[in-house]
Amino acid sequence: SEDSETLLSPYSDHENGLPKPASPPKRRRSLLPLAVILPAVLCFLFGVWLGNSSYLLDADKFCTRQVRLYWSPVLDAISPNYSPVKFNGSFLKENVYRQPASPAVDAAWEALGINYRSMGIPAGRAVSAGLSTSQHVQISGEHMAGGGFVADLEGLHHLHCLDLLRQGLGWNIEYYKARGTGPWRDGDGFARKHVTHCLDILRQQLMCAPDLSVLGSVWVIKDEPGAKAKPFVDFNTRHKCVDFEAVRAWAEAAQLKE
């Protein structure tokens, strides 16, 4: 009938002076894409966070990476495992590293890994490790699976340099000259260049990463009649140190075959 046609007409409300009920359905439809996209984005971000959570939550690795300019294979293999260590700052009591030259002293320094063979850096990681494909020595797959670059761990080179300075001390040098090993077999001229190279490398390293800790003083009295207490610097300080043994063990295992 005419009445029913009027009720079914889409214009019936408008013609009767009533507002058209069109806006609410359109608003609901416009929210549908957001309802689909937002959960997808949140799931993606959660996946990214989950995939990197081990890195983000490992404060030791995070902090160590932050102060490095280049990638190091050590940080992919082990955690720095920082822990408190009290330095042995004794002035009069000499540990083995301070004693006059002898086979036992040499063995102690050798055990630190100062003469380990080079390791290999995969070709694909060379640039991120600060190596130049046009300048640095490369090795074939015969020496390393897939080929790569010859490299040495810089921290162990610093210890090698410190040991060389020890050998060059006035009360040690004749011992090593007589043995004729290392730079001492090539004459004083070359030995001097080697020692001063090491001296300056250590200077630069200490200036690059100066220890910002403070040294207090303690009262000491000399063991002599009438001695009075005087302040003396306390070198037995505590530091937060990398697990050196873990680094050394990794470097030992990473040596290229002879």
From TrEMBL:
<dbReference type="Pfam" id="PF11807">
    <property type="entry name" value="UstYa"/>
</dbReference>
<comment type="similarity">
    <text>Belongs to the ustYa family.</text>
</comment>
<dbReference type="GO" id="GO:0016020">
    <property type="term" value="C:membrane"/>
</dbReference>
<keyword id="KW-0843">Virulence</keyword>
<keyword id="KW-0472">Membrane</keyword>
<dbReference type="InterPro" id="IPR021765">
    <property type="entry name" value="UstYa-like"/>
</dbReference>
<keyword id="KW-0325">Glycoprotein</keyword>
<keyword id="KW-1133">Transmembrane helix</keyword>
<feature type="transmembrane region" description="Helical">
    <location>
        <begin position="31"/>
        <end position="51"/>
    </location>
</feature>
<dbReference type="GO" id="GO:0043386">
    <property type="term" value="P:mycotoxin biosynthetic process"/>
</dbReference>
<keyword id="KW-0812">Transmembrane</keyword>
<protein>
    <recommendedName>
        <fullName>Tat pathway signal sequence</fullName>
    </recommendedName>
</protein>
<feature type="region of interest" description="Disordered">
    <location>
        <begin position="1"/>
        <end position="26"/>
    </location>
</feature>
